[in-house]
Amino acid sequence: MALSLVNVIGKEMKRGLQPSTSRRTERKIIEKNRRNRMKHLFSVLNSHLPSQPSDQEAKSLLDQIDEAIRYIKGLETAVKEAQDKKENLRGKKRPSSSTNNNESAAIISPRIEIRVRDSSLEVILTSGLHDQFIFSEILRMLHEEKVEVLNANFSVVGNSVYHLVHAKART
């Protein structure tokens, strides 16, 4: 609880204390309020840390601050790792491969075109160099749908891979 400066100075003036004494008292009160505020903030910071099996009261203030710093840095590392994993799973962050003149390969969004004629099926997949998993997913889905793959081939042109799958519905 903060001490009221007005109340203390008013009481000192009534007692006939000198203004220099009241300034000194004022600085003491300001400093005491600052220490109380800092103590409260450290308490709040410590309450946000995960509880440790050891007694928190036995730790010095410096140890508590060091623990908070380690905890925050650990959280920052975990967040960065989670973001990297999320980007990798989304396919946005791909390993960089270089062309002959050392430029990064462009990221190409996959495109799928499906043509159906009678009982035959033609699947054309255009993707980037690092999207080979999409081709295997297409083959897996065709297998699940009991579609017989007659022919599958691919060609690489620049930073794009073109897959062509000819299939026939099983009867």
Distance between the termini: 84 Å
What structural class should be given to the helix and strand makeup? alpha+beta
Helix content: 40-55%
Instruction: Summarize the biggest pleated sheet.
Output: 4 strands, antiparallel
Topology order in helix (H) and strand (E) letters: HHHEEHEE
Instruction: Name the beta content range.
Output: 15-25%
Strand order of the largest sheet: 1-2-4-3
Tell me the total number of β-strands. 4
Overall spatial form:
rod-shaped
Rg, Å, rounded: 35 Å
On the 0 to 100 scale, the average pLDDT is 78
Q: Low-confidence stretches at least 5 residues in length (pLDDT < 50)? A: 94-105
Specify the number of helices: 4
What does this structure look like?
There is one protein chain. With 171 residues, the protein is of the alpha+beta class. The protein is rod-shaped. The protein has four helices and four strands; from the N terminus they run H-H-H-E-E-H-E-E. About 7% of the residues have low confidence. The chain has a four-stranded antiparallel sheet with strand order 1-2-4-3, covered by helices on one side. Helix 1 packs antiparallel against helix 2.
Q: How would you summarize what this structure contains?
A:
With 171 residues, this protein is α+β, with helices and mostly antiparallel strands. It is built from 4 helices and 4 strands; from the N terminus they run H-H-H-E-E-H-E-E.
Record keyword descriptors for this entry:
171 residues; alpha+beta; four-stranded antiparallel beta sheet; 4 helices; 49% helix; 22% strand
